[in-house]
Every structure is written in C-alpha cells, then in structure tokens.
Amino acid sequence: MFPVKLDHEDPTHLHEQVAAEIRRAIAEGEAKPGERLPPAMDMAAVLGVNRNTVLRALRVLRDEGLLEFRRGRGITVVGSPDQGAVLAKVKELVRFARAHGYRRDELVKLIESES
Amino acid sequence: MGLIREARRRQRRRRAAIGVVVLASAIAALLFALAAPGGGTGSRSSTTSRIAQEDSGRGFAKYGLPCWALRAASLSVGPRTSRWCKPDSRSAVQVVVYPPDMQVFPAATCKLLRASGIPVGSETGKGSCRLPLPALPNQA
C-alpha cells in the first residue's frame, strides 16, 4: 500500500500537496517526458483524496509546463520539474515587474542585459 | 513504491477486472444463445427445416421464420421473437399469407420455402416458383 504522505492538518492546500507528490514522482523518473500519467481516478484512490483535488493539482502542473492535456489522449509529461520551477519563477518575475511599473519590453531588455 | 507506479498498478488491476466482467458477459450471452430455441443447430436452412417440422400443422405461430425470409417474400412481418419473426398476427391466416399480387417468388426464396416445408407450386423460369394461394378463412 502506498504510504500516504498528505497531511490534512497542514496549512498547505491539499491540491498543492498532491501537485508536489506528482512533481516528485516525475523528478524521480516514474514517468518520463512523453509518457502518459495514470488516470486521476487511480491517483486519487492511491492518495486517498477526491478525484477533483488530483485534477486541480494536474492543472497546476499543466500551468507550470510540466504536463500537457490532450483530449482523448490523456495527460502526458512534457517537461521536467526543473523546467516547471523555472517557469514558476518567470511568472513570479513578470507579476513582480508589472506591480513595479515595468512594461514587457523593459523587462525583456533587463533580462537580456543580465545574460 | 511511488505514486505514479502505484496508480498504474491500480489502473491495470481495474482494467483486468473489467476484462473479466466483459468476458463473463460474452460467455453468458453465448451460452444463452445456444440454449435458446434453434440455437447452435448449424446452418440456417437446417434450422429452418427443424422449426418447420416442429411447428408443422400449427403454422409458424410459435417460433416464426427468419425475418429476412419473410421480407424477401414481401410478407408483412409481425412481432419479433428472440431470433425469428412471425407473420403479421393481423393476417387472416397464421401460416403465411401470400399477397395476391406477389405469387411468383425469386429462386432464393423458393429454395428457402422448400427447405422450410412450405409447399411450393409450379416452377417458372430461372428457378423462380409460383406458390399456391392458401385458402383464406373467409374463402374456405
């Protein structure tokens, strides 16, 4: 039986904990880029959570660029957890720059000057 | 064991269980079909003959005839049984009512009707046959 690592008392949202579990499983090589993930129903049963919680976690990972949803072909791994982490940082940077009055082209120039 | 591996194992088990159920249903359907009247008796013509023998003298009220044969003979088709169609129950006679304007039937239909024990009348050209018009109750 799969050891349940989710903590319902943890202030971190359950779907974020599930996303972290899936992220870790991909990082450990359980599913390589191009492979399909098992159905959310089965992952939910293994983790002991609702299927919708797993689906929400999968959407988070899709937004990170780690997964791809294709109608009729399931959910496939397209990136690596590292790429997802970089993408999350980029999104954070864009939000931060907007909050401080930087336009997109100015932000691009700043990044180019750094590289 | 990791989350994804465990979920895949669970997915395989679920698929296997579905496969077992589908297989059991197919076997049950097959057994039911073989146990049904006329089931598993070989060719269509031998089945038709057997039914005709069992049903002789009573018409095809119980088992009916193959639906395609009735339609091929341009006969009105009544209620459908498990495998067979009966001639229309509204017909005046229950055996087979030949439409007055369709007394000459093609060769394939003649062959089937002979195999079914239905009296076939004089042959015409190209294997077709003329059937004797049965006496309707109001004509009898």
Provide a brief overview of the structure:
The complex is a heterodimer of chains A (115) and B (140). Chain A is mainly α and 115 residues long.
Using only CA atoms, what is the Rg of chain B?
Answer: 23 Å
Beginning-to-end CA distance, first to last residue of chain A: 48 Å
First and last CA, distance of chain B: 85 Å
- Residues in β-strands, percent of chain A: 5-15%
Q: Based on the structure given, which CATH architecture of the largest domain in chain A is correct?
A: Orthogonal Bundle
Q: Label the overall shape of chain B.
A: rod-shaped
Strand content of chain B: 5-15%
Order of strands across the widest beta sheet of chain A?
Answer: 1-2
Task: Return the CATH topology of the largest domain in chain A.
Answer: Arc Repressor Mutant, subunit A
Give a short account of the largest sheet of chain A: 2 strands, antiparallel
Number of strands of chain B: 4
On the 0-100 scale, what is the average pLDDT of chain A?
88
Number of helices of chain B: 4
The first-level CATH class name of the largest domain in chain A: Mainly Alpha
Shape of chain A: elongated
Could you name the key traits of this structure?
heterodimer; A: 115 residues; mainly alpha; Arc Repressor Mutant, subunit A; two-stranded antiparallel sheet; 5 helices; 2 strands; B: 140 residues; two-stranded antiparallel ribbon; 4 helices; 4 strands
